[in-house]
Structure formats: structure tokens, C-alpha cells
């Protein structure tokens, strides 16, 4: 009896060949994105990361790929499964976590908010140009005094004034906000106390974004502090389906899984860099890949990548079946980012002192992993979401 060997992916980090779960059409999309990243992003990203600037010229390439609307009906030539969009997040983050953050904020958080919470008219108005990437989006939830407790402690306010709303307050860490055309802002209604969503367009009076300087992770992401000072937004720009923080959480549930996928890409890149370096770097007259301790590091890294990829594939399958719950996304985000943190540290260790040189790339993944580990829900918060699900008892306060 003969057996057919699986057609493993070209990625050495996909040890079990999970990419083969994609259809032929889906794999073609991934390969086009891979080629774009290899030729247009990889050669330039270290320079932009070092200068804390974003390579805006790559947006034209993303437009040509036509992948921004894959998650939403009627916005792309191909309606993507969660498995496909997950592999795209992995692919982009494998090239650079900052670029994936830009892409995820726009396509997941901003477009997801409009799709989930907007009226039919609002979806028709904003989603098509966002899918074409003619208009770039941002998502403003986190505040200077509120991260994990933002649900109960949201300080930015929205006050109804005739056919408009007046926004006052501050937001922090808002990716894309220095240049975004549309910013989805979450604010507490002063009348009923509920959280509502608003789309604030660039150059609206009273909207003041300022770039955050001095970051040591995701340096190419243009994070902003935003001050809202009597910022007037029309009722037409209030997301008509956003009535409480529960609606905000519905968006986060979907995008949290995307962070887990991106984290697999981050650690996969670090592993692949370490493996290639170990094969060519010689010490004591032989490649360091021949040393037992180095092989132990490589095997541990690959195990982390493989088990994490299996977890996010399972998560995507739950999402595609429509049975994903908060705790599923929370577990993936918590577990995968923890494994990522160990993996990028081991990869940097394989490089020795050379691991701190930006030219060797692994330092960028090592630094950026710290941001992925923290944003869209810290490990502790996600662990408590899982703990509440399995025990039936909340332990948040």
C-alpha cells in the first residue's frame, strides 16, 4: 500500500501543514499576499520601524490585493472564511506586526464596528470605500485611565444637542488615528449612562489626535492620544446599532481571535529566523544547529508555533460554524500570546548578541511581541473570562 505525503506549506514553521486546510482559491489569495509582503514590505520595514514611521506607500499594494472586505458580504471578489482571514493575519504579522496592526485595526475593529453596529445606510455609506481602502479607519476605546476596566470606567462622554452629539474626553493608544479618515469612538451617553458608538471624521472640529512618541514596540504603528473638546458629531454618524458596551464586546470577540492569529505569525517568523541562523552560524568549528541545547530551543519554539496554530485553526472553525463564544477567543489570545513571548525570547537567545541588532530582524519581533501580549485584553483578563466560563463565577473584582 502506498501513502501520499501531505503537501506541506512553504513555511518551515507550519510543521503539520495546516495551510493545506485552505481551498485552492484561498491558498491563491494567501500566496498573493505573501509575495506582496516579501517584495514590498520586508525590504523596507526595518527602516520605518527604526524611525517610528509608517510606510504609507504600501497602502496602494493592499488596495490591489482586495482583501480588506473579505470578512463582509458583497465587499470583495471573494467572501473569506475565518480560516482564510486568520491565515492572512498570520501572514502579514509574519512579515511585520506593525503592518498587521494597521491592517487589523482598519479591517477588524473599525470595519467590524460599522458592520456590526451600523444601520444599513451607514454600512452602505462607509464600508465600500473602507473595503477599497480609499478611507482608512481607526477604533478609539482605550483611555488614559481605563484599559482593562474600560467597560465600567469609560470617561469620554457624549451629550445630545439637537440633531448632534457633543463628545468630550480623551482616548489613548489609538492605532491609525493620526491619519485615519474615520475613527469609531466609544463614549458614555450622559443621559442614560450607556456606551454608544460614533464615527468621527478626520478634521472634525474638536478632534485632536497627537502621535505617541518613545514606543519600544510596534514602532511603525501610528498610535495617538486623542482629545475630544466639544467635538460635534451628527446623529447620522452615531452607530445606530450600538446601545451598550455589550455591542462593543461583540466586535472585540471577533478581533481578539485575530490577535491570536497574528501572534502565531510573529512567533513563526522568529522561529524561522532562528532556524536559518543556527544552520549557518558556526562556533567551535561546527554550525550551532548541531548543539543539543540549540536543538532543544528550536524544538520548543516549533512546538509552541504548532500547538498555537492548531488552537487558532480550531477557533476559526468555531467561528465559521457560528458557535464561537467569548471564552473561546479569550483562551486563544491568552495562551497563544504567552507561547509567543517564550518563543521570541528563545529565538533572540539563539542569535546571541547578534539578536539585538535590528538588521537581523529577530529583535523587531522580540520587541513587538510585548505589545501583542498586552493589547485587546491582557493575559490576566482573558484568563478570568475563561475562568468565569468554566466555573460559572466571575472573579474580576
From TrEMBL:
Keyword Phosphoprotein attributed: no
Acyl-CoA dehydrogenase/oxidase C-terminal domain sequence ranges: 250-390
Cofactor section: FAD
Annotated ranges, domain Acyl-CoA oxidase/dehydrogenase middle: 138-231
Domain Acyl-CoA dehydrogenase/oxidase N-terminal, chain residue ranges per copy: 27-133
SUPFAM superfamilies recorded: Acyl-CoA dehydrogenase C-terminal domain-like, Acyl-CoA dehydrogenase NM domain-like
Alphabetical list of InterPro entries matching this protein: ACX4-like, Acyl-CoA_DH_CS, Acyl-CoA_Oxase/DH_mid-dom, Acyl-CoA_Oxase/DH_mid-dom_sf, AcylCo_DH-like_C, AcylCo_DH/oxidase_C, AcylCoA_DH/ox_N, AcylCoA_DH/ox_N_sf
Record has Metal-binding as a keyword: no
PROSITE patterns: ACYL_COA_DH_1 (PS00072), ACYL_COA_DH_2 (PS00073)
Superkingdom of the source species: Bacteria
Family note: Belongs to the acyl-CoA dehydrogenase family.
Cross-referenced PANTHER family: ACYL-COA DEHYDROGENASE, ACYL-COENZYME A OXIDASE
Name assigned to this protein: Acyl-CoA dehydrogenase family protein
Species of origin: Amycolatopsis heterodermiae
Amino acid at each position: 500500500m502506498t501513502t501520499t505525503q501531505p503537501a506541506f506549506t512553504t513555511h518551515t514553521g507550519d510543521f503539520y501543514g495546516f495551510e493545506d486546510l485552505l481551498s485552492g482559491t484561498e491558498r491563491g489569495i494567501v500566496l498573493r499576499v505573501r509575495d506582496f509582503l516579501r517584495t514590498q514590505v520586508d525590504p523596507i520595514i526595518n527602516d520605518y520601524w527604526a524611525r517610528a514611521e509608517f510606510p504609507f506607500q504600501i497602502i496602494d499594494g493592499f488596495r490591489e490585493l482586495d482583501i480588506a472586505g473579505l470578512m463582509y458580504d458583497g465587499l470583495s471578489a471573494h467572501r473569506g472564511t475565518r480560516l482564510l482571514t486568520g491565515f492572512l493575519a498570520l501572514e502579514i504579522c509574519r512579515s511585520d506586526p506593525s503592518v498587521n496592526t494597521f491592517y487589523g485595526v482598519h479591517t477588524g475593529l473599525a470595519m467590524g464596528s460599522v458592520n456590526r453596529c451600523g444601520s444599513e445606510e451607514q454600512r452602505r455609506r462607509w464600508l465600500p470605500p473602507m473595503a477599497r481602502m480609499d478611507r482608512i479607519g481607526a477604533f478609539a476605546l482605550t483611555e488614559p485611565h481605563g484599559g482593562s476596566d474600560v467597560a465600567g470606567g469609560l470617561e469620554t462622554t457624549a451629550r445630545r444637542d439637537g440633531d448632534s452629539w457633543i463628545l468630550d474626553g480623551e482616548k489613548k493608544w489609538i492605532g491609525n488615528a493620526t491619519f485615519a479618515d474615520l475613527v469609531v469612538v466609544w463614549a458614555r451617553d450622559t443621559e442614560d449612562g450607556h456606551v454608544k458608538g460614533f464615527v468621527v471624521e478626520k478634521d472634525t472640529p474638536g478632534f485632536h489626535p497627537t502621535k505617541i512618541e518613545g514606543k519600544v514596540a510596534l514602532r511603525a504603528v501610528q498610535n495617538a492620544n486623542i482629545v475630544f473638546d466639544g467635538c460635534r458629531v451628527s446623529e447620522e454618524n452615531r452607530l445606530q446599532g450600538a446601545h451598550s458596551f455589550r455591542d462593543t464586546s461583540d466586535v472585540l470577540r471577533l478581533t481578539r481571535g485575530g490577535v491570536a492569529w497574528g501572534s502565531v505569525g510573529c512567533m513563526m517568523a522568529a522561529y524561522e529566523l532562528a532556524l536559518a541562523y543556527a544552520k549557518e552560524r558556526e562556533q567551535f568549528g561546527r554550525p550551532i544547529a548541531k548543539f543539543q541545547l540549540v536543538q532543544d530551543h528550536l524544538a520548543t519554539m516549533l512546538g509552541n508555533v504548532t500547538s498555537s496554530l492548531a488552537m487558532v485553526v480550531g477557533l476559526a472553525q468555531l467561528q465559521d460554524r457560528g458557535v464561537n463564544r467569548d471564552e473561546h477567543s479569550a483562551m486563544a489570545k491568552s495562551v497563544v500570546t504567552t507561547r509567543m513571548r517564550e518563543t521570541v525570547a528563545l529565538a533572540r537567545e539563539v542569535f546571541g548578541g547578534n539578536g539585538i541588532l535590528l538588521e537581523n530582524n529577530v529583535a523587531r519581533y522580540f520587541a513587538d511581541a510585548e505589545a501583542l501580549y498586552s493589547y485587546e485584553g491582557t493575559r490576566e483578563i482573558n484568563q478570568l473570562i475563561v475562568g468565569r466560563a468554566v466555573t460559572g463565577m466571575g472573579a474580576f473584582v
